[in-house]
Write a structure and sequence with these properties.
Layout: E1 3-9, E2 22-27, E3 43-47, E4 53-57
Antiparallel strand pairs: 1-2, 3-4
Length: 59
Amino acid sequence: MPVVQIIGTNTTTVKKYVKFEVLLDLENVGIENPYDPEDIDVYALVTTPSGKKISINGF
């Protein structure tokens, strides 16, 4: 079974217009090429203060 764990971030608070980085550990995901979007799709689902949900692509 694939397992994705967050190992760390560059900050504890996500702010508007400021870079937020996440370091992920991927286990048993069976990726041949981590740069091929057909093999893996990384994104963040952000909920704004108004409750709107926004999907932001990772890279």
